[in-house]
Amino acid sequence: MAGTPILQTALKTIEVLEVLSRFGAQPASLGSIAEALGWSRAATHQYLTSLSRTGWVEQDQERRYRPGSGAVLFARSIVELDFLPHPITDAMDELVDVLKEPISFAVLHGEEAVIIERREPRRSLIHRNPERYLSLVSASGQVLLAYDRRAQALRTPQHEQLIAEVERTGHGEVRNKSWMGDDVEAIAVPVMRGDWCLGALSVIAPAGRMSLPDAAAELKSSAARIEQALTDPTP
Question: Any idea where the HTH iclR-type domain is (predicted)?
């Protein structure tokens, strides 16, 4: 609402949680978190202490910090409820209209890519329930391996060439893959917020039915609009 003052403490609290999440499963020291935030150790410690008392942050025996039960339960509820910000779902609806193929949004969940939102055209791709969990060599999995910092521990030497190609082209790609008995092709692109990968936006279609370069261009254009909307959410 125009004219409503912004609570700087709320913005800073969110910033702390976002930075802490970027360390993945590894607990982070006070100094590391303060450096990532660009804050003093004293200010960082004050916010971490407040978050610790609410259960959103916890400390291990070495006094390093990591997301607490409150943050974990909140993140899990988002995955289970299939909730996404409207700029992402709006873009997915637009892509379905343009590409006439199923559009998905996947995030890294443990050691897999999991689809948390899917939009279908009136003409179904396949008359069966789509898979929710994807391998890390799927188009979406490739993107998450390349761009999601939490996936660094999942990378193997066998992934190096794949990741390099995704970073070169800006998208993940699968051609003529057998999926649930059908040959399909898929393209996925990252949706970023700063240097943080929010997830992979993808399209899938029977082999030969869509132009892969055109699909990649449409996905990248949509991802750019999503990123702009999430960076500047005010109308």
Answer: 7-69
